[in-house]
Every structure is written in C-alpha cells, then in structure tokens.
Predict the 3D structure of the following.
Amino acid sequence: MLTVVFGASGNVGRHVAETLNSVGAQVRLTSRNPDPAVFPAGAQVITADLDRPETLPAALDGAQKVFLYARPEGIDGFVAAAESAGVQHVVLLSSAAVVQIDPMTNPISWMHHRVESALEASTLAWTFIRPGMFATNALWWWRDSIRNEGAVRLPYPDARTAPIHEKDMAALAVTALTEPAHHGRAYVVSGPEALSMRQQVHHIGEAIGRDITVEVSTADQARADLERTAPPFVAEAILAGWKAAADEPPQVSTTIEEVTGHRAQTFAQWAKDHAEDFR
Ligand SMILES: NC(=O)c1ccc[n+]([C@@H]2O[C@H](COP(=O)([O-])OP(=O)(O)OC[C@H]3O[C@@H](n4cnc5c(N)ncnc54)[C@H](OP(=O)(O)O)[C@@H]3O)[C@@H](O)[C@H]2O)c1
C-alpha cells in the first residue's frame, strides 16, 4: 500500500512521512524542488507541484493513499490525476477556518473550502483535518525578535489561542491514513489548552532560560510586521484572528486524544522541543 506525502518538507508533512516510515509503510515523498539535505537517505522522493497538474500523474502512479496540502489552484487537476491513478483515500490538511469563518468573506477559509469541496465532489474517499492555530506560527511571528532583541510585540497580548503541536496533527493524519474508520470524517483540532499570547511567550522564555519582554503594539504596527513575511490578505486575516481571539476564547477540542489515543502536547512542551530555534 503506497502513500504519497505532499509537502514532505513541511512542518506537518515531514512528521507524517517520518511516522509512516516508522510504522513500516511504503511512502513516496514529494517536493517542488527536492533538496537531498532535507529528505532521509534512501527515501523515495519525486518532484511534484500541486499547482502544475501535469507533474501529478508520475507522483501518484501506483498510490492508494495521499496526504495533501490545500492548494486551490491545482485541485481539479489533482482530483483528475488521483482518480485516474486509482488513489482510494486522501487525508487533507485543511483548516478550522472553513467552519469558523464564512468562506465568501475570508480568503483563508475560501482556499480550504474550495479544496474540500473538490474532494467531496470526487470519487475519492477523504478525511479532513481542520486545525486552528499551529504552534509553529510562533517561529514565524516571534523567532527573530526573540533571538535579536529578547522581545516580542503583540497588539493583543491577552488574546487566547489553543496552539497545536505539529506532531499531534501528523499523528492524527497517520491514524486517518492507516485505520479504516476515518473516511468521510472532518476533524476540528486544537491544542489542549487556551493560552494568552503573553503566556505563550512566557513558555518560550522558560524553555530557553531567558526573560522575554512583551511590548504592546498597535494593530497598524502588527500589520506592518506581518506584511514583512506574508501577503497583505494573509496579514489581515491573521490580525483579524488575533482580534477575535481577544474578544472570545477559543474552543478547546479533545480530538487528538479521541482519535489517536494520545494526549495532545502542551505549548510548554512544544517550546521545549523548539528551544534551539529561539536561542
Ligand atoms: N499556520 C496555521 O496556524 C494553520 C492553521 C490552519 C491550517 N493551516 C494549514 O496548514 C498549512 C501549513 O502547514 P505547514 O506549517 O506544515 O506548512 P509548511 O511548513 O509551510 O510547508 C508547506 C509544504 O507545502 C509544500 N508546498 C507548497 N506549495 C506547494 C505546491 N504548489 N505543490 C506541492 N507542495 C507544495 C512545501 O513543499 P516544497 O516547498 O518542498 O515543495 C512544504 O513542504 C497552511 O498552508 C494551511 O493550509 C495552517
């Protein structure tokens, strides 16, 4: 039984690939530009781009299962290629945004909704993983300022989120790929606890043994910071998410434990796992 893992260099995809390997599954990894330094020696790696459907038949040849990232641009080509390759089941890394925010008004919700809809309309069996906030966002948002200044700037320091460890999402995906009960299921996923952003920064400080200063910024400053590494529509969506989280605490789900049988990992544990990234 061959499983193709798209995004096998990604935060979640790399752990999906590692975990499948560790249980002895036959795995093919994809990347748009495979870098031998990134993938384990001996792994089956193929060049594929979900936005370029002509690259997909070779990637999917002989596969029964797929771990997929949401790429709306090429999803119809992916469905056609997967159906003709005889793929049976696709586990999609989607987003809780599809059920929390109207896809017609929010581009992040729309892109995941578009991909889910195409899979639902296909002959493929599917499982949707719909996470809220990834813990890895802390690397993106705060790593540089923690390393360089020992500080973070937060427009809504008391906004609470329930960050999810990437290994928990991967464990959920592997369970869905390797056990039969998950076809047609959509799992909304959160981390195990709601924490303010100030508390999250504190956990990172504890993990690296350093006091990190929290400076309160304006929404305009935060937008400008985000736009250094993200397109404006993504920056705007993140800022709106933070503002909403300041007004209303997140729902904490028990999905990880229910589906995988293992407790979801805390943000404090995530910070320890990534301490070197912040030093
Ligand atoms: N961050 C959050 O809080 C959050 C919340 C909910 C849902 N999500 C979902 O999770 C995704 C991010 O997951 P992550 O952190 O694991 O991602 P990541 O670390 O940024 O990795 C993305 C992976 O996707 C692959 N990729 C990008 N464009 C591709 C394309 N056109 N064709 C094939 N592969 C492509 C990349 O592989 P190569 O570069 O090697 O090709 C990379 O391995 C988001 O895009 C979103 O859909 C995120």
